[in-house]
């Protein structure tokens, strides 16, 4: 039995902060798990160091399910992003270890490949509709079959999803939260124009996605969904805040545009009603924020009963360790839909050497035993943690709004 003898949290900032858990066994096998919670990184790091790592020592690394239950039920305080990201990091690292000990890539342990590779979507964004279309055409030329479109809103200084850098989108940009201004009425005018222009320029063989980032009321979202129907969006993401899962019923009553939600969910309980009532089409929960591979599989299995597909979150704040884990998961689940792929910077890729690869609009986790990803600790040590917050959002009259 591989006994856990050491575990440590590695914090690094190769352009943005990442928190990684590395677990070591008595036979020298190691495993890694992502524990990054954007803008709240040190909370998870300390949860792991102070409260989780001491409980892992001496345990059998093969007992993934038992360790998961121990950390979830044993804490008494269940769920929440900090707890579930910490549990996810342990769970991911243990799957990595099991794969290495078996000499198999993790997707083989999850039942094997259900497809040859997994379709990913890239991010086309720009200040204007024209800039966005230009970026989308580049993605199309690179072979992407699915593209997310976000563009600036005339009359607003900044917009969600529109980056300063053409290639790398990074919303956590300041050591105190920056403030954005939002106008729903201005936004609702521009998105249908963007999709109309996109269909004219890109044709109909590419999937087009859009992220609303929790900013609309259900009835506003219903209106937007209806306006976009002629352009056949692949999905509308995070139309409205999902604390009230029932809100999606109202959107559904007004549009056939497919709905995706879940990047901020951390447990099956956050999406149980959404799934059982068939109020969504894609569930976006991820390995790192939803309790690891073990819990995400449970969410996917529930979703599968209702023909709801997966569409895991994959922004830059999810480290290459999470990306690798997501790809093993995606390759194996029967109800895979799409995987988000926001490319990491070359600095980040160097800190996390990985076996996964991109070709022809799709990705594959590679066939290295385990997850096929590691952290170069020497390189990581050269990038010191630097506090960075996500922005906040206010309406034009100063009222705090959803970001
Ligand atoms: C997405 C997301 C991101 C998040 C970010 C928060 O769909 O990729 O909405 O842009 O805002 O991951 O940490
Ligand atoms: Mg999103």
Automatic annotation (TrEMBL):
Domain of life, source organism: Bacteria
Catalytic activity: D-mannonate = 2-dehydro-3-deoxy-D-gluconate + H2O
SMART domains: MR_MLE
Required co-factors: Mg(2+)
Pathway in which this enzyme or protein is active: Carbohydrate metabolism; pentose and glucuronate interconversion
Assigned EC number: 4.2.1.8
Domain Mandelate racemase/muconate lactonizing enzyme C-terminal: from-to ranges: 129-258
UniProt KW keywords: Carbohydrate metabolism, Lyase, Magnesium, Metal-binding
Pfam families xref list: MR_MLE_C (PF13378), MR_MLE_N (PF02746)
Enzyme class (EC, first level): lyase
NCBIfam families: ManoateDhtManD, PRK15072.1
Function: Catalyzes the dehydration of D-mannonate. Has no detectable activity with a panel of 70 other acid sugars (in vitro).
UniProt family annotation: Belongs to the mandelate racemase/muconate lactonizing enzyme family. GalD subfamily.
Name by which UniProt lists this protein: mannonate dehydratase
Species whose genome carries this gene: Sphingomonas qomolangmaensis
């Amino acid at each position: 039995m591989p006994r856990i003898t050491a575990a440590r949290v590695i914090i690094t900032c190769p352009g943005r902060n990442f928190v990684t858990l590395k677990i070591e066994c008595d036979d020298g096998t190691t495993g890694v798990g992502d524990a990054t919670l954007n803008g709240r990184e040190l909370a998870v790091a300390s949860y792991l160091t102070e409260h989780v790592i001491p409980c892992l020592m001496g345990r059998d690394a093969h007992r993934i399910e038992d360790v998961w239950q121990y950390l979830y039920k044993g804490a008494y305080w269940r769920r929440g992003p900090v707890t579930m990201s910490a549990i996810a990091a342990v769970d991911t690292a243990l799957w990595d270890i099991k794969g290495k000990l078996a000499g198999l890539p993790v997707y083989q342990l999850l039942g094997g490949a259900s497809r040859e590779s997994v379709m990913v979507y890239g991010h086309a964004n720009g200040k204007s509709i024209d800039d966005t279309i230009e970026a989308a055409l580049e993605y199309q030329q690179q072979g992407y079959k699915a593209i997310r479109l976000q563009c600036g809103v005339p009359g607003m200084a900044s917009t969600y999803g529109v980056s300063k850098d053409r290639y790398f989108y990074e919303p956590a940009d300041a050591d105190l939260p920056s403030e954005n201004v939002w106008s729903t009425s201005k936004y609702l005018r521009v998105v249908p124009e963007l999709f109309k222009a996109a269909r004219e320029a890109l044709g109909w063989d590419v999937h087009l996605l859009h992220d609303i980032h929790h900013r609309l009321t259900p009835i506003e979202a219903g209106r937007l969904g209806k306006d976009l129907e002629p352009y056949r969006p692949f999905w509308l993401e995070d139309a409205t805040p999902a604390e009230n899962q029932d809100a999606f019923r109202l959107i559904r009553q007004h549009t056939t545009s497919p709905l995706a939600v879940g990047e901020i969910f951390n447990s099956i309980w956050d999406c149980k009603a959404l799934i059982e009532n068939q109020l969504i089409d894609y569930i976006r929960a991820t390995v790192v924020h939803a309790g690891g591979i073990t819990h995400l599989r449970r969410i996917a299995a529930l979703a599968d009963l209702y023909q709801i597909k997966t569409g895991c979150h994959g922004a830059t704040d999810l480290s290459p360790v999470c990306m690798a884990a997501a790809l093993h998961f995606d390759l194996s689940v029967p109800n895979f839909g799409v995987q988000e792929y926001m490319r990491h910077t070359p600095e980040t890729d160097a800190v996390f050497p990985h076996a996964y690869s991109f070709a022809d609009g799709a990705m594959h986790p590679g066939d290295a035993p385990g997850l096929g990803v590691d952290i170069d600790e020497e390189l990581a040590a050269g990038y010191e943690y630097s506090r960075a917050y996500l922005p906040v959002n206010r309406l034009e009259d100063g009222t705090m709004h959803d970001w």
